[in-house]
Amino acid sequence: MAEIKPIKVWLTPSGPNPWKVILVLEELSIPYEMESFPFPDVKKESYLTINPNGRVPAINDPNTGITLWESGAIILYLVEQYDKEGKLTYESLRRKNEERQWLMFQVSGQGPYFGQAGWFTVLHAEKIPSAISRYTNEVRRILGVLDGHLAKTGTGYLVGDKLTYADLVFVPYNDRVDALTGMSKEEVFGGYENVVKWHEKMLARESWKKSMEVRARLMDEQGLQWNGMPKGVNNMEEYMALLKKG
C-alpha cells in the first residue's frame, strides 16, 4: 500500500468542531497537519475559497484531491476512505446506519444547542434569562437522550459493543459543558450516570489527551481564553470593539 500523505486540516483552536475531526484522525492513525489561524480569518477571502460558509474545520486530502468542509461530512469521508479494518465502524447495514444516526444527532442537536447555551450564557453582551434557561434546558435534554440510550444498550457505547466515531463526536462539546452553561460539570451531568461513565471513558483515551495538549498550545500561542476570546475580553460586544480598533 502506498504511503498516506498527511491530510491538511484548517482550524481555529477554540471551537469544539475541529477536534471531532482530529480525534478521528488520531484514532485511525491517519497522518495530518494543522493549519491553525485566528477566528476572524474564517471570513477572509483566502479561507472562503476553501469553505464558502466561513466555518471550521475544513480538510484537503492530497491522496484523493478532495477538499471538504462540515465536520459531519469530513468524518464520514474519513471513516469510509480510511477505516478499512473497521476500528471505528461496523459493516452491518443496521450498525452502519445507527452510527450515522448518532452523528446526525450530534451535528443537528448537541452542537447547535450547546453552542447557543454558550452564546447566551457567556458571549452575548446582554443577559437574557429566558434564552439562557431555554438553551440550558436543551443541554440537559440532549444529555437525557444520550443517557437513556446508553442505559438501554448497556455496553457503554452508543452503537453496538465497541467504540465508534459516533461516540467520539460528542466528546468536545460534552467536555465544555460547564463553561457553556456557567455551571459545574457535576451540576449539568447530575442524574446522568451513564453519560458520566461514558464521557470519562472517552477522556481517558490517548487520542483525546494528545488533542487537548495540542489545543492548549495553539490557544496559548494566540493568546486566547477557552471560549476563543482574547485574554481580557469578556463578551462579544468587547470583542467586536477590539476588532474595529485593529
Description:
Helices cover 56% and strands 7% of the residues. It is of the alpha+beta class and 246 residues long. The chain has 2 domains: 7-87, Glutaredoxin, CATH 3.40.30.10; 93-204, Glutathione S-transferase Yfyf (Class Pi), Chain A, domain 2, CATH 1.20.1050.10. Helix 1 crosses helix 11 and helix 4 packs antiparallel against helix 5 (129-153). The relative contact order is 0.13. The model has no long low-confidence stretch (mean pLDDT 94). InterPro entries: Glutathione-S-Trfase_C-like, Glutathione-S-Trfase_C_sf, Glutathione_S-Trfase, Glutathione_S-Trfase_N, GST_C, Thioredoxin-like_sf. It catalyses: RX + glutathione = an S-substituted glutathione + a halide anion + H(+).
Question: Topology, pairings included?
Answer:
Layout: E1 7-11, H1 17-27, E2 32-36, H2 45-48, E3 58-61, E4 66-69, H3 71-82, H4 93-123, H5 129-153, H6 165-168, H7 171-174, H8 177-181, H9 185-189, H10 193-203, H11 206-221, H12 236-245
Parallel strand pairs: 1-2
Antiparallel strand pairs: 1-3, 3-4
Helix pairs in contact: 1-3, 1-11, 4-5, 5-10
Tell me the number of strands: 4
CATH class of the largest domain: Mainly Alpha
Radius of gyration over all CA atoms, rounded: 18 Å
What is the overall silhouette? globular
Strand order of the largest sheet: 2-1-3-4
Terminal residue distance: 49 Å
Overall mean pLDDT stands at 94
The second-level CATH architecture of the largest domain is Up-down Bundle
**How much β-strand is present in the residues?**
5-15%
Query: What is the makeup of the main sheet?
Result: 4 strands, mixed
Tell me the series of helices and strands, N- to C-terminal: EHEHEEHHHHHHHHHH
Provide the CATH topology of the largest domain: Glutathione S-transferase Yfyf (Class Pi), Chain A, domain 2
Helix content: 55-70%
Count the domains: 2
The total of helices stands at: 12
Structural class: alpha+beta
The unreliable regions are none
